[in-house]
Amino acid sequence: MNAPGPGREGAALVRGLRRLAGVAVSIAVSAACSIGSEPPEATPESGAGGDTRWQYQLQGRVDTSVPAKTFVVDLFDTPESVVEELKASGRTVICYVNVGASEDWRADSAALPAEVRGNELADWPGEFWYDVRRTDLLEPFLANRFDLCREKGFDGVEADNVDGWTNDSGFDLTPGDQLTYNRLVARLAHERSLTIGLKNDLDQVAELEPDFDFAVNEQCAQYDECAKLEPFVRAGKPVLHVEYGLGTSAFCAETTALGFESIRKPRNLTAPREPCP
């Protein structure tokens, strides 16, 4: 399941390691950018309260009053002023970037040749899987997007659609192709001092956990897959988890026990949010 792309109906916080210039040298991230750290004291300006869980909003004007410690919002649609506002009130802000599929409505969508585009994503008109083997074309394209993420002041990246090898992409992708590409995505983020989240791709969690700083998951409770994320938990890295169809009573006990930061959201990822108690 992939998050709905912005502009249609239908990832946090930095507790992990940053790697600079692709070198496996880690530095401690400041407490203000840590998942699970206490949110800032509530003020009329910040709207922050006692909720350390995350907010996932890709549709509509970002509601900065939501009392979450981490916000995952769209790279292109979120103004720099909103990023600045959230960071000034002590939040960590993660940019959503679709790294595995084209989105026809994006201003830079014509920058890649048609040969890189494969089949349209099921249920997501206007999105087409990338041939992730073509790193010669995709690396500079993604680098430009991650540069924008850094320039806008974001702390990290939620990289979507990094599991094309398990889908009908139109290309003969192997598990090795996907591992190579996903590690490239992680390296590009770390070279820019951005943290990076592994989105779904549950069958490669064990191999990829060392390269990623946190995980973002959709609907592991609904599909009985949450145990696959345990390598992140064991490594002390955050798991940002969202369910769409289940009520919180159906998953919060399980995912809280696992150590996840879990919320329930509408599938179109507008502002409403129901965190686990």
From TrEMBL:
Name of this chain's protein: Endo alpha-1,4 polygalactosaminidase
Glycoside-hydrolase family GH114 TIM-barrel domain span: 53-270
InterPro entries attached to this UniProt entry: Aldolase_TIM, GH, GH114_TIM-barrel
UniProt source species: Pseudonocardia yuanmonensis
